[in-house]
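User: Reviewer 2 asked us to show a designed sequence for the structure in our supplementary figure. I'm pasting the structure tokens here. Could you produce the per-position amino acids so we can include them in the response letter?
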């Protein structure tokens, strides 16, 4: 599993093999069972995650009790938590494991210590966020300008593994449609 993390870090840094080995040995890797809640909506996050194996769902529950799925994080993806702009730092989302997962678990309270110890990590984090924010903007623009059939087709083209990995009602929520509409779209296509 650590080789996956090393390969990923190499995409964003020019650390030597020795530095990579040292960094990766400092990073805790944990296993989580399907259904584990990593973060509850309204909590202040104290951990960050990187998926080595499995699938993590980002969702919220509105005032009416309806769940809305915003993203799925799978292998070699960081689980992004953007809440530093809020005064109370509370998460607007929950995170749960939709499968058994193996995750890198970062402690946000020692983030600066890690940056001080490994100066290239801060640059890596910036590059990572730039890439992720760019993807989020592109995905949002595509989402709001497309019809449900086009969203599903995009999912088939870009993330086909989700079709078999997550429950249909969560997939429908992610696509912004009802489970019944998703079933009709699947039949048509």
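Assistant: Here is a per-position design you can include in the supplement:
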């Amino acid at each position: 599993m650590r080789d996956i993390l090393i390969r990923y870090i190499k995409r964003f840094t020019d650390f030597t093999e020795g530095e990579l080995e040292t960094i990766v040995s400092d990073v805790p890797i944990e296993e989580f069972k399907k259904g584990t809640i990593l973060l509850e909506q309204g909590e202040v996050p104290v951990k960050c995650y990187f998926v080595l194996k499995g699938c993590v769902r980002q969702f919220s529950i509105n005032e009416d009790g309806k769940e809305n799925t915003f993203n799925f994080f799978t292998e070699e993806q960081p689980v992004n938590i953007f809440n530093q702009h809020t005064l109370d730092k509370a998460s607007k989302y929950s995170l749960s494991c939709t499968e058994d997962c193996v995750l890198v678990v970062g402690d946000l309270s020692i983030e600066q210590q890690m940056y001080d110890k490994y100066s290239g990590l801060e640059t890596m984090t910036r590059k990572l966020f730039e890439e992720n924010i760019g993807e989020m903007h592109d995905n949002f623009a595509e989402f709001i300008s497309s019809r449900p059939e086009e969203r599903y087709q995009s999912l088939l083209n870009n993330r086909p593994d989700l079709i078999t990995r997550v429950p249909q009602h969560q997939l429908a929520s992610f696509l912004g449609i009802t489970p019944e509409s998703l079933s009709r779209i699947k039949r048509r296509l």
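For the response letter, you might also mention the following. Helices lie at 2-12, 17-26, 111-117, 120-144, 148-158, 162-165, 168-175, 179-188. Strands lie at 29-32, 37-39, 47-53, 56-61, 67-73, 77-79, 94-97, 101-107.
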